[in-house]
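Subgroup meeting minutes
Present: P.N., E.W., G.H.
Scribe: E.W.

1. P.N. recapped why we're keeping a running log of single-chain structure predictions: easier to compare across weeks, and new members can see raw inputs and outputs side by side.
2. G.H. added today's entry (215 aa).
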Amino acid sequence: MSKKLISGIIGAVVVVAILGLGALFLYNRNSDSENNNDNNGNGENTQVENNTTSKADGKILVAYYSASGNTENVAKKIAANLGADTFEIVPQEVYTSEDLDWTADGSRVNREHEDESLRDIALVETTPANWASYDTVLIGYPIWWAIAAWPVNNFVKDNDFSGKTVIPFATSTSSSLGQSGELLKDMANGGNWQTGRRFSSRPSDSDVKDFTDKI
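Output recorded in log:
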């Protein structure tokens, strides 16, 4: 075989190899471009739409009664973590600091504690707007004499919790959650009631986040 023929064959092989590598490079480049479009287009848009839907639809409600501001503080942190709406349970006759002084004989809370018939506390508003739209309702309250503060009672009694997940939470200096959640469940009209959580009067952000991360 002549040297010219051998050189020609080698040259042809080299050209074919170069053309093949070029086609493979173009194919991989186009494939990468398509994959990036999927990730940066459909993937990100789906995530944004899901986040927007979760907050805009208001599927989670944090309802709370707060006597001295501690429960309100926790409720707002919970709502911020969950992107939830809030509803404050407000008595028509608001409790003053003197009313709340459990160490004073004859104070309002002491009278109501001693006479259960006085615990029928009328509320400014009982049912939140768009109540039917909420799938999950968290109910917060301070602990009074080992039970939920009774201004919460009429909120629980006067609303239909059917089809909703209900999660109680409480604040206290030292008292445990006790049976407060179970007693509210017994008053309620339906609902899938979950085990609640007690927070200290001023819990850390991490304690609240640990709670909301599990919801």
